[in-house]
Amino acid sequence: MALLVVGSMAFDKIETPFGISEKIVGGSATYVAYAASNFVKPIQQISIVGNDFPQEELQSLQSRGVQLDGVEVVKDKPSFFWSGRYHLDMNTRDTLVTDLNVLADFNPIVPESFQGTEFLMLGNLVPALQKSVIQQLRTRPKLIVMDTMNFWMESALADLHDVLTMVDVLLVNDSEARQLTDEFSLVKAARKILTMGPKYLIIKKGEHGALLFHGKEVFFAPALPLEDVYDPTGAGDTFAGGFIGHLAKTKDISFGNMKTAIIVGSAMASFCVEQFGVQRLKEITKQDIDERMEAFVQLVNFDIALV
Amino acid sequence: MALLVVGSMAFDKIETPFGISEKIVGGSATYVAYAASNFVKPIQQISIVGNDFPQEELQSLQSRGVQLDGVEVVKDKPSFFWSGRYHLDMNTRDTLVTDLNVLADFNPIVPESFQGTEFLMLGNLVPALQKSVIQQLRTRPKLIVMDTMNFWMESALADLHDVLTMVDVLLVNDSEARQLTDEFSLVKAARKILTMGPKYLIIKKGEHGALLFHGKEVFFAPALPLEDVYDPTGAGDTFAGGFIGHLAKTKDISFGNMKTAIIVGSAMASFCVEQFGVQRLKEITKQDIDERMEAFVQLVNFDIALV
């Protein structure tokens, strides 16, 4: 059951109250691939990198079942670079540097070998490019999950609404949900967004967990209470990778299984933030994931028989 | 199984983005009593009111099984009055008026008829008065739950630490837990607080739910996603009333039952915020509560069999 992932592969330099990272590998598609590769193979990657992107990183992804036929390597330009500084609460950050570099020329082309994929993860990207990928697929995937951000709500709202009509699941954070709908109440915001196209909406609240909305139903997944969050960078993409990775593995896109998939996503995100970049995601085993899933069961499991 | 409640009975005037209330009945002990009276009788109330406190409100409480022998009525002074304005997020508020009035003279006396109570809820109050109540009880209650606030951490920290050594469960919000421990991580803050006396710690996070810590165990209860929060005033006290009310009803103070009790508290709080003051708490039925408990089950219930 192939999973097609579209997004950035890049370099990040991160400052947190706990320290400052080197220039390390990041990018939405990178995090999605590392998280999802624990559940599904092959992963078909569509992205763009520069002449500076490390070969060993590409090989590390390939060894996890990530096919790179769709990753364009630009010989005479550097990779996308982002640098940011997180505040103490780790939910807010200041962007210090954004060098688009090769990303400015990104025009995703779906390789012939990627046709027929059944699960599509559209990482945060120019809405018009997300639409282009959907249109290049001759067979519509069984499930299309889309991430986006406030920047596109300000600079490409019409295109964003256009893509929204084509996807099944939208992933946004709480402030983005409010901005997209002009509603402060997340329940009201969710109802509005579910009229824009997606049948499922996931609102990410960082350390405060995530909400899944579908019709009149709602499901809440907490974030695992952690002693320290070292680096939230990529946690949302890692969440998305765990979510769609579980769905692709189980081939079950029912609301019930999406609940489980959100817990899987939350578990993967809880690993991601334990170290800078993708480091922790490279280390974890199936047993680590199983143990953390059990921790989530214990975290929310209660008995109402006594009430 | 009697429940002894100590705290304020007062008047509030509340401004929210949704409107401004009249001068309405409030106070920590009032909210606790209304919430707990759905689960346990009698409730033994210790508080102080002025000559302006409405008789019909006292009768309403009595009709719900609340014994008022411990409520001192001061003939020549008005009741405690608080006025505040909530910000849009409903988690932050500005205090506009605080008239202590009779509360300045409050010296809680435990009536002989209240001796032998098995559950004690110490509402937010001067720590020295909370201690006085514990010391007046000839038989130590089976469970002592204590609420407090940042004000006492700044003005009576030594007394607060003194009382902490005498209680079983401490209720604070996230910012208070951080202030009490100088730890930003709630997990680290919890570990520190559990060395100060309480064997159980509940950290309330408002719309983001609540955490229960005990030894190395942790449980998370979400807040019910609501279309609108009209008035958060008393939500924490209502949560406390539902929590200890369920424990007193079931006579089971195990960690497992405390998980259920926190969901009961969250359910009661979700009613409280739907209208100004205690209005909604007066209306709800056993069936309303059962249906909301089921909503919490649906909100967090997932299946990991597929993972």
TrEMBL record, chains A, B:
GO molecular function, one term: kinase activity
Domain Carbohydrate kinase PfkB: start-end pairs: 22-280
Domain of life: Bacteria
Key word Zinc-finger present: no
Transmembrane parts of this sequence: none
Keyword entries, A-Z: Kinase, Transferase
InterPro entries for the chain: Carboh/pur_kinase_PfkB_CS, PfkB_dom, Ribokinase-like
GO cellular component terms given for this protein: cytosol
UniProt name for this protein: Sugar kinase
Organism: Ilyomonas limi
